[in-house]
Amino acid sequence: MAVSSKLLLSLLLVATSLMAASAANFNQDFDITWGDGRAKILNNGDLLTLNLDQASGSGFQSKNEYLFGKIDMQLKLVPGNSAGTVTAYYLSSNGSNWDEIDFEFLGNLSGDPYILHTNVFSQGKGNREQQFYLWFDPTADFHTYSILWNPQRIMYLFPDSPIREFKNMESAGVPFPKNQPMRIFSSLWNADDWATRGGLVKTDWTQAPFTASYRNFNAEKACVVSKGASSSSSCGINSNTNSWLSEELDSTNQERLQWVQKNYMIYNYCSDAKRFPQGFPTECNFS
């Protein structure tokens, strides 16, 4: 879908002024929002950890709001028996008609693969879930998880492969997140009523505290919304350094996306006929 530079500029400057985002550390970029000390920023801001015990989980959010961007974060998920736990990492706006782009990592019994749950909300409407088995151990080391969000599409990316693409299909009447700035959020919490095998496997609190770790946040390729500021930057729309604003999958990455979805997708709302007996959502006709 083509988007003119004039339209893109108008989207980027909706009641705001913009400036290019830059990489920093957790002390500069994030606030711990809950957990009563269970979340910690360590190593002079280079590392952040979230903890969950039977009393509470924990979470954080970005100081900045973003309107389009490529957001990278390295995560190391809860090791061992993490059944019942959820590590959520997502972008979200405020209000009853919010937009949201979700990564949710569903804990597992030791030896079973982690499940990645993804969803896209626009104007308060979600129900666009896709789930995948991870084909690597996300607890043994840090791995980069990325969200690319531009006016044409949303892409979920790992270092070696895209795993999901949600295109802008407003021309077909499908709402697309484009006007509401979003913050980055993450939390570690107990969801043993549904997270592992539909809630059949409960959290083993003898394994607590559970810990997820974060490092190497990068939002250099993103636009920070600075409400009330005098800047009127367009984030370099015509600059080669911001080619992500019109980035799409090349043929190699299209093949990688198809490989992941063929081999590791375990749920796709666009093939759940029981859930949509009257017909699949409109966007499913374009996937």
Give the helices and strands as they follow along the chain: HEHEEEEEEEEEEEEEEHE
Number of helices: 3
Q: Beta fraction of the residues?
A: 35-45%
Tell me the distance between the termini: 14 Å
- Low-pLDDT stretches: 1-23, 229-234
Overall mean pLDDT? 89
Judged by helices, strands and strand pairing, the structural class is mainly beta
Principal-axes shape call: globular
What percent of the residues sit in helical stretches (DSSP H or I)? under 10%
Structural Rg: 19 Å
In total, the number of strands is 16
Sheet of most strands: 8 strands, antiparallel
Short description:
With 287 residues, the protein is mainly beta. It has three helices and 16 strands.
Question: Overview of this structure, please?
Answer:
By secondary structure, the chain is mainly β. The chain is built from 3 helices and 16 strands. The chain has helices spanning 5-12, 26-29, 251-263; strands at 17-20, 30-34, 40-42, 47-52, 58-62, 65-76, 85-92, 100-106, 115-121, 130-133, 143-149, 153-158, 161-167, 183-190, 210-226, 265-268. Strands 1, 3, 4, 6, 11, 12, 13 and 15 form an 8-stranded antiparallel β-sheet that branches. It has an 8-stranded antiparallel β-sheet with strand order 2-5-14-7-8-9-10-16. Strand 7 (85-92) and strand 8 form a beta hairpin. The radius of gyration is 19 Å and the shape is globular. 36% of the residues are buried. The model is unreliable at 1-23 and 229-234 (pLDDT under 50).
